[in-house]
């Protein structure tokens, strides 16, 4: 049995596809894959969360488009790894799906680690992360960066992962939440990341970078000059978000290295306002939860994930957590809560 965690991105949203910085950490919750080798070359895929929808396919027949639905993620992982043997794979998870906590990458990475071990593939974790990303992008058809798979495979307990999405280099940053709680609030709104808005934002960022003559918005060093050079107000807002968000990631990493997690609140809330007003990917229930959390005395709060659905995180002093939870539940009765504990990366159980 192999387990891979979900993740919360503490800060750094929509920076990944602009070659920028992100700062995820692994959750205690995740996806577990029970995997056995088979000698008949068949890949059999089942999930306790997808009752009755088992999939059987000859590993030799794996190709993008050959498997749809949830099974595309594990089948795509076998495909991306070039796994030619057979395997029976049973999935179980305690991680909500589609709520921005990266259940898809946890699923891919649990399977990737399992097939790497059972097939004796000998790949290191960055290579497994890249294979899992290809599974999601090329096989399941969801354009995604490397953050989610890197978080699932490279994080460590008590730390966040400062990941440079251009170089692929990462560093462990201590995330000491003593006296604090990081609440994850699932707003119950489900996103469709494969859908139009995500692709539209990526395209806007690419257009802005081209107009500014830089390889990616990561390279904008003078925000004022960049905003002055762009005539389209929409592109100006997108650039404003990406550039300031990268700075917020660096500032957050600096505070964490100083052991000052309690001071992160303003950065988290600024990130939310930027995502709401400049990048325009927030959704009404997220704004409601952030508002309720701040009114109840949370130190900061923001939406997480690509937007249009999923979860919000709220940083609270531990003695205020109960009150913050109550106020959020009153504002949005269907909100579901989990407490984020910075946890280890994927591993064999
Ligand atoms: P997120 O990664 O934020 O949870 P995604 O839309 O990227 O959201 O991925 C969710 C999809 O991943 C689900 O719709 C399903 O296809 C697949 N998935 C995740 N966890 C499981 C699971 N335990 N069993 C089956 N499929 C799963
Ligand atoms: Mg996902």
From TrEMBL:
Residues 2-37 form the Galactokinase N-terminal domain. GO terms for cellular component: cytosol. InterPro entries: Galactokinase, GalKase_N, GHMP_kinase_C_dom, GHMP_kinase_C_sf, GHMP_kinase_N_dom, GHMP_knse_ATP-bd_CS, Mevalonate/galactokinase, Ribosomal_Su5_D2-typ_SF. NCBIfam families: gal_kin. Its EC number is 2.7.1.6. GO terms for molecular function: ATP binding; galactokinase activity; metal ion binding. This is Galactokinase. It is an enzyme of class 2 (transferase). The keyword Magnesium applies. Belongs to the GHMP kinase family. GalK subfamily. It comes from Actinomadura craniellae. Keywords: ATP-binding, Carbohydrate metabolism, Galactose metabolism, Kinase, Magnesium, Metal-binding, Nucleotide-binding, Transferase. The keyword Zinc does not apply. The lineage of its organism: Bacteria, Bacillati, Actinomycetota, Actinomycetes, Streptosporangiales. Residues 81-154 form the GHMP kinase N-terminal domain. Pfam families: GalKase_gal_bdg (PF10509), GHMP_kinases_C (PF08544), GHMP_kinases_N (PF00288). It comes from the Bacteria. One of its GO terms (biological process) is galactose metabolic process. Residues 255-331 form the GHMP kinase C-terminal domain.
């Amino acid at each position: 049995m192999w387990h891979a965690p979900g993740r919360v991105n503490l800060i750094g949203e929509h920076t990944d596809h602009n070659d920028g910085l992100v700062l995820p950490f692994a959750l205690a919750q995740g996806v577990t894959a029970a995997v056995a080798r088979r000698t008949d070359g068949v890949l059999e895929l089942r999930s306790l969360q997808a009752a009755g929808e088992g999939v059987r396919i000859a590993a030799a027949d794996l190709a993008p488009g050959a498997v749809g639905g949830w099974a595309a993620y594990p089948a795509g992982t076998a495909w991306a790894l070039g796994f030619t043997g057979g395997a029976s794979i049973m999935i179980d998870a305690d991680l909500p799906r589609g709520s921005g906590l990266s259940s898809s990458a946890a699923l891919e990475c649990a399977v990737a680690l399992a097939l790497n071990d059972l097939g004796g593939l000998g790949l290191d974790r960055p290579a497994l992360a890249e294979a899992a990303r290809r599974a999601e992008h090329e096989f399941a058809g969801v354009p995604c960066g490397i953050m989610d798979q890197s978080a699932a495979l490279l994080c460590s307990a008590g730390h966040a992962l400062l990941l440079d999405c251009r170089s692929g280099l990462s560093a462990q940053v201590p995330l000491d939440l003593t006296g604090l709680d990081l609440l994850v609030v699932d707003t119950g709104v489900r996103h469709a990341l494969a859908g139009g808005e995500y692709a539209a934002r990526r395209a806007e960022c690419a257009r802005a970078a081209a107009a500014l003559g830089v390889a990616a918005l990561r390279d904008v060093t003078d925000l004022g000059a960049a905003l002055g050079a762009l005539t389209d107000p929409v592109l100006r807002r997108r650039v404003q978000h990406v550039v300031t968000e990268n700075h917020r990631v660096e500032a957050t990493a600096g505070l964490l290295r100083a052991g000052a997690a309690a001071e992160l609140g303003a950065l988290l809330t600024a990130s939310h306002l930027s995502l709401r007003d400049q990048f325009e990917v927030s959704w009404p229930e997220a704004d409601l939860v952030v508002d309720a959390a701040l009114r109840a005395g949370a130190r900061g709060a923001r939406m997480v994930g690509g937007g249009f659905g999923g979860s919000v995180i709220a940083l609270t002093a531990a003695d205020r957590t109960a009150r913050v939870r109550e106020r959020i539940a009153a504002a949005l009765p269907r909100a579901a809560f989990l407490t984020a504990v910075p946890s280890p990366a994927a591993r064999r159980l």
